[in-house]
Amino acid sequence: MAKKQFKAESKRLLEMMINSIYSQKEVFLRELISNASDAIDKIYYKALTDDSLTFEKDSYYIKVAADKDNRTLTITDTGIGMTKEELENNLGVIAKSGSLSFKKENEIKDGHDIIGQFGVGFYAAFMVADVVTVISKALGSDEAYKWESTGADGYTIEQAEKETVGTEITLKIKENTEEEQYDEFLEEYRLKSIIKKYSDFIRYPIKMDVKGQRPKEGSENELEEYEEEQTINSMVPIWRKNKNELTDEDYENFYKEKHYGFDKPLKHIHISVDGTIRYNAILYIPEKMPFDYYSKEYEKGLELYSNGVLIMNKCADLLPDYFSFVKGMVDSEDLSLNISREILQHDRQLKLIAKNINKKIKSELKSLLKNEREKYEEFYKSFGRQLKYGVYSDFGTNKEVLQDLLMFYSSKEKKMVTLDEYVSRMPEDQKFIYYAAGESIERIDKLPQTELVADKGYEILYFTEDIDEFAIKMIMNYKEKEFKSVSSGDLGIDADENQDKADEVKNENKELFDYMKNVLSDKVKDVRVSKRLKNHPVCLTADGEVTIEMEKILNAMPDNQNVKAEKVLEINANHEVFQSLQSAFENDKEKLDLYTKLLYNQALLIEGLPIQDPVEFTNDMCKVMV
Ligand code: ADP
Predict the structure, then answer these.
(1) Which residue from 38, 64, 126, 206 has its CB within 8 A of the most atoms of ligand 1, so it is best to mutate?
(2) Per CATH, is 238-373 categorized as 3.40.50.1110?
(3) Is the CATH number of domain 406-485 3.40.50.11260?
(4) Which of 542, 385, 547, 401 is nearest to 468 (CA)?
(5) Ligand 1 centroid to residue 78 C-alpha, Å
(6) Ranges of each domain in the chain
(7) For residues 9 and 95, is the Cβ–Cβ distance under 8 A?
(8) Which CATH class is domain 8-231?
(9) pLDDT tens digits, 451-473
(10) 107: helix, coil or strand?
(11) pTM here?
(12) Which CATH number is 497-549+556-625 given?
């Protein structure tokens, strides 16, 4: 029989999996049991919603059986089974979504990342087995098929015999090596403990034939050997358990089991509500961003169960977009099994649950911020941007919910601070919340526009992400304090001698400024003497609502409308350069033209804006030198 090849991508993954240095090889069993449980869920769900199928609870189970003599471990389930095509499609391809290309190979250091990220659960079997054989009979099919593979070199499929619907997976356990004891996966006690550890809450019985000794009947001290079938797992789903019976490890295991993420969750939220609406939920705030989080591929949503039966993998209606990073599940007795996607959207119960969950997530994040600052900052690094999008979208409807969760880098504290922290330490004479936008903290540190505000001793928030300024425009003011860009026309800083002097200079040099404005024509709205510059000769600022940073961002968008900031070229009258301008104005207009263009282009460079004609600019520089 001809061997079929795995798809190229799958093959590479498979090789990594087989040679994986991943230490926790035991998770292969968790993966196979989880698949078996899903398969039973599917048939269970069908039986509940389809009258032609009868469902007897006792006839659904998972069985784990080890055969030491033959070195095989068999996992049998009475689930929905797979057709020939399904065997081929489901087990012949890994990373169906092509997600591997997202991740560079060197980022995948061990099998750990792969399991979970790509749903390659089944392939974990190759970490402990040389040969994997799957015999399956699908519901509604008369034929059974056998899929077999020895690993990366491909697989075979042929017809097989199997009486009942379901799947039987047999692993030929690897021989021991110097580093690895594969034998342990044939030991009853070891298998029992792995099942207990990872799969205790699986809803269906996981059975094993267990050998033991017991007192012989009718005898005081004689023992007899026995073998009996035992159910190893407690079958109580974790979300139905009491919070104080559960450890952090239990929650972490559930997170991994469910493939919610490949990281260690930052926080879990266990909710049990028993009021007008009854539901249990386990939610997680991940630590790391999923690789596709900020892409179109990412789908938000929680698993939705109706009385213990999974009815939807990703119920998007349960989470607002700004909390789309939350993972987890909700189980409610009050939801109908037959509920369709369309009905769900209008379901009153579901809306209530969603509202409830939303509140809970918010309060948990707040308490994380308050009590576990480091963890919160870790979280914010990954998902802060999403919160800011949340503030910005829907015309700012959600700003009240979210503004207290925002953080920005502070010029004074040199770390992330909240708006509340900023406002609460504002000096009395400070009217505004000042911010500076730029590419990076280092860039903003050097912005000449910050000079006056910084000199006044005011704290400045650094906006380094595209969304920041837009989000802030939505908030407008926080605790009655308005936001103000350090590059905005009027900084709202009280007139002092600096100011008076500026006005004086302005009046005395009106013609000079008018002349310079003419040279630059419509490139700028105005040329002015600066009230904010201390050491730098020039900078650009903006009058009106649109700042220069916003112009940059808007124009980088695909459907840009060519929005322009009203740019103002500000000149530092205290700088030596100013004297050169004055004397050029008196004696050599051609020189003044040259200086004006140079200063303008320098201001553009400082802002990180492109120079229209770089060649002209360098030629101009040379003119000054010679
Ligand atoms: P995942 O479970 O994350 O989808 P797997 O590689 O573990 O990835 O499984 C691939 C697919 O193979 C499953 O989605 C399921 O459709 C099918 N499958 C695996 N094991 C079984 C099983 N025991 N019974 C029925 N179908 C199964």
Answers:
(1) 38
(2) no
(3) yes
(4) 385
(5) 14
(6) 8-231, 238-373, 406-485, 497-549+556-625
(7) yes
(8) alpha beta
(9) 889 988 999 999 999 999 999 99
(10) helix
(11) 0.75
(12) 1.20.120.790
